[in-house]
Write a structure and sequence with these properties.
The chain is mainly alpha-helical. The protein has a domain at 50-79. It has 2 helices and no strands. Helix 1 (12-48) runs antiparallel to helix 2 (54-78).
Length: 79
């Protein structure tokens, strides 16, 4: 018997799969926001307390941000 509310879905498994996909995209977006905050914090820290590793820390934070953006794009394209 087909459900009346969502006739395009055959069973509850497909609905669960869609929910999980949206949760992955949401998690990727939140992770990207976290990476932006980390990058800003590293930039502020480098201005406040300059060390010999400040440039390396900035580069590492930027690479982290780029990877987070790529992960979000991957989730949006694949899922």
């Amino acid at each position: 018997m087909q459900p009346l509310y969502f006739p395009q879905f055959n069973n509850g498994g497909e609905i669960l799969l869609i929910i999980v996909k949206y949760m992955f995209v949401l998690a990727g977006f939140l992770y990207m926001l976290y990476a932006i905050l980390v990058t800003k914090q590293v930039s502020i820290m480098s201005k406040t307390l300059g060390t010999t590793n400040s440039a390396q820390n900035k580069v590492l934070a930027f690479v982290h941000l780029v990877i987070a953006i790529l992960v979000l794009i991957y989730y949006l394209l694949v899922l």
